[in-house]
Amino acid sequence: MLVEFEALSNGASGTIACEPASGSLFPLGNTRVSCLWRDRVDAGCTFSVRVVADTDTLPGGPPPTDNPPPTDGPPPTEAPPPTDDLPPVEPPAAATRLTVSTILAFGDSITAGYVSPTAFTLLLEPQNSYPTLLEELLRTRFPSQNISVINRGTGRETSAEGNDRFLNEVDRYQPDLILILEGVNDLALGILAASLDGKPFDENGFTDGIVLNLSTMARRGSKRGAAVLLATLTPVEAAWRAANPDGDSAVDSLNRKIRSLGSELGAGPVETHGALEGTGLIGQDGLHPTRQGYEVVAQTFFEMIVSRFEKSVSATSPFE
User: Which domains are present in the chain?
Assistant: First the structure.
């Protein structure tokens, strides 16, 4: 079906590009559309278009079926509808809600949703990012609750740079929950700097600096009244390790410290490393997850959020 729509920028100048574009042919079912403002790499949105067949408007009424129902006996069982790529999420049996509704996903290019189809190519696909997929999972489980997951991932960002912009993002969106996944770019830059100086990489001291930045962000978020979850770094594979000698060991060292910090602060950790390790769902650059990898990351955050923040709702005293 040909679908037309208009993407608006609220009067601001610039060009908005959407994929699929307006005027494209959309198949039956759900199609995710991603729009980006070309003049601002951090601005954009995603939404879904659902196309259904209206058989009553077809000439002669609904098309005949190849398997008409028998004249007697029970009617045949209908085939189940096609499923989406994400694993199915069943709404909870009892009346439940999350104690959080506005969730800020904060981090670097892995949060933003970059994928690497080749070792030297990065593509930004916010429609496949873990925050977008996480929002779909949460809205499916809690259909009566207005849940939003705001993607504030910035490519090539270090934890120090993240720390600098963190409070601005928190004050702007006023989230109930903050998800932090950051630190791998620090390691790459630190390994490179040590190599250029002809010195060994100080893994322990360097990762201590990253943990300090993560701790500062988590504590600042808590002081703003938000819950915080820290995530371990996702696994790195051959291409990234080849470009960053000792990087695998550094990732393991930093993840041990993130786990300790998360336990200390009551902020997780969310085991994205363990969820992806050995799955083969890291892209060709050895760093960014594949599209299927981001589904695993989203599912891992989803399970932690539900376990921490799902509450029963009393019929006589509704949850606020």
Answer: 2-51 (no CATH), 96-311 (3.40.50.1110)
Supply 76's token pair.
């045949």
Contact between 275 and 282 (Cβ < 8 Å): no
Q: Are 273 and 234 in contact (CB under 8 A)?
A: yes
What sign has the CA pseudo-torsion 275, 281, 284, 289?
Answer: negative
Phi/psi of residue 99, nearest 5 degrees? -80, 0
Q: How much is the pLDDT for 66?
A: 47
Helix (H, G, I), strand (E, B) or coil at 182: coil
**pLDDT tens-digit map of 56-69:** 444 455 555 444 44
pLDDT band at 233 (very low <50, low <70, confident <90, very high): very high
SS3 state at 303:
helix
Residues 6+ apart with CB under 8 A from 86: 133, 136, 137, 295, 298, 299
Residue 190 in contact with residue 158, Cβ under 8 Å?
A: no
pLDDT digits (tens, 9 = 90+) for 69-114: 444 545 544 545 544 556 666 655 558 999 999 999 999 999 999 9
Residue 124's DSSP bridge partners are 114
pLDDT tens digit sequence for 241-275: 999 998 999 999 999 999 999 999 999 999 999 99
d(CA 2, CA 277): 41
Contact 302, 294 (CB under 8 A): no
CA–CA distances in Å: residue 138 to residues 111, 278, 310: 17, 26, 11
Q: Please give the pLDDT value at position 192.
A: 95
